[in-house]
Specification:
elongated; mainly beta; hydrolase activity; 27% strand; ATP binding; Allophanate hydrolase; Cyclophilin-like_dom_sf; Cyclophilin; 5-stranded antiparallel beta sheet; 4 helices
């Protein structure tokens, strides 16, 4: 590891099934991007790679290998020579691959043939930033062990997606939607992703959601949380929980993001505009 950029973490598909121990699922926030990177280098889709926040990652190969970078379109260089993202790139021992800053989006994923074989905890090699489980954030000088490359080939090249400046996020009503006045209308207004967001969740700014009179001062015992839960604290400004979320929470959940919309949230920079959308029929059941 030569440079890490703002934050570089080892991530695979996470460790679901441990909520009873207070452990969130973790794993890559943009699951399709990690799976694609692994396919490009011939790995199993679940192999561990590097989740890189806003570029700046530079790695030196200790042995020959194949790498691929996915997520938003981003400049990728080998020894200063542009090679592009979303395609497999062969490295000789001693060569350095560098990832620039993406023009849109937030997180890029680097896969290496054989997968990154750091020690697993609870069946996963993912870093959980909330519970501090899994390998520590990468630092310059770290050496990443690799597994044996697959004998099968990977994909050749694919087109990157572009992270939009405004997201429309599909949701379903949460278990406490009835605590709020016109929740579908309130959530459908435009929200802004704030700089206080991270892998635990996205904090949003906008017109606060108002509780109904019956629940205006009511307290809620802690209850279980899922990835994608849209929790609303007393200030009325939603928090959308991502993969490193706490497993319980004491504020009402007004909605839950559909799984298909979660990868887009992983690429939402501070300042991104966001609106929640669902069929009005489901709120009137």
């Amino acid at each position: 590891m030569v440079e890490t950029g703002p934050l570089a973490l080892v991530q695979d598909l996470g460790r679901p099934g441990y909520a009873h121990l207070g452990v969130p699922p973790s794993g890559a926030l943009d699951v399709p991007a990690l799976k694609l990177a692994n396919r490009l280098v011939g790995n199993d889709e679940a192999a561990a790679g590097v989740e890189c926040l806003f570029g700046g990652l530079r790695l030196r190969a200790k042995t020959s290998c194949t790498v691929a970078v996915t997520g938003p379109a981003v400049a990728v260089e080998v020894d200063g020579r542009p090679v592009g993202s979303h395609a497999p790139v062969w490295l000789a021992a001693g060569q350095i691959v560098a990832i620039g800053a993406p023009a849109t989006g937030l997180r890029c994923y680097l896969a290496v043939s054989g997968g990154i074989m750091v020690d697993a905890e609870l069946g996963s090699r993912s870093r959980d930033v909330l519970s501090e489980i899994g390998p520590a954030p990468l630092r310059a000088g770290d050496l990443l062990p690799l597994g044996a490359p697959s004998v099968s080939g990977g994909a050749d090249v694919v087109l990157p997606t572009v992270a939009p400046a405004e997201l429309v996020v599909r949701v379903d009503p949460g278990p406490r939607a009835h605590w709020f006045e016109n929740p579908a209308t309130g959530l459908a207004k435009t929200w802004t992703v704030t700089a206080d967001s991270n892998r635990v969740g996205l904090r949003l700014d906008g017109t606060p959601l108002a509780r109904t009179g019956e629940y205006a001062e009511r307290e809620l015992p802690s209850e279980g949380l899922l990835t994608g839960a849209v929790q609303v604290p007393p200030n009325g400004l939603p928090v959308v929980f991502l993969a490193d979320h706490p497993t319980t929470g004491g504020y009402p959940v007004a909605a839950v993001v559909r799984q298909a919309s979660l990868p887009a949230l992983a690429q939402a920079r501070p300042g991104t505009l966001l609106r929640f959308h669902s069929s009005t029929k489901v709120w009137n059941r």
